[in-house]
């Protein structure tokens, strides 16, 4: 067993040191996801993430910068122990003030992307309900997360130049999750099972006076297999909102796109007590494709897979390459959207997936690919 600085504090939840978790399931992980968007330009999304897998002895991070039709990706991994810092290689995170301010840095590296960006919370965090799911008599999901909305400030370095991030135009959302979630399939594992859901929405959206988060999975239209949603007030306001008891959606899609591509639409939040909030959605150009961070695996790089003491790889995608676009987009993306409600305008991202057999949004499905 391994002791770390966290073991000095009265924060233990199991009869184990902090380096260990209460289950030996190799899929247990703890992760950050953060997305920054240029809401004025509308075409740039920077998404990054990091995570630790105690039972895999892995700490990893990724960076995906999508701008002007090009996406640059960086994936980093190291052995977890004995280093208990929140960083890997050129990437690091500092919690300046819990639930209020986080600083992310990426030093010089071969991808050509670097940054020093601070996330400042504008809204209180929203704790989702516990997500518990069983498949073939095995627990596949037993996890929880909180989501938070904010702004960004700092600098972003690209091969084209340096961009100053100011909170008036750079908006941000993040989550922090922990628990058991499926690892990507590897050789020798049982066959994968199709998910119960056939349509997925993950939508942290913020307006001037409140923010919402929706995580919805439906097996068919109007039949959720998972719904976790809520409304949060600005930091320190003390305002309270009624619970969201249902979500309705009427979305429009770009026809004949190489992968599902949102154009806009409407999302309605049904509130306890009978009221509703209608949100109008307009998709903008900016869209960071998560497969660049290893979601569902990319060219042999699988999230949570042990890759040795220090590994890094990077690549660059031409998003105008329609022949390759489905490969880039098939694991979902952080798509920048404008949201309006009662004359107020805000922004956020929506991650979405539509699978064959859902029974709606057939126009979202890409044309059949030639064999």
From TrEMBL:
It comes from the Bacteria. This is AttH domain-containing protein. It comes from Rhodococcus rhodochrous KG-21.
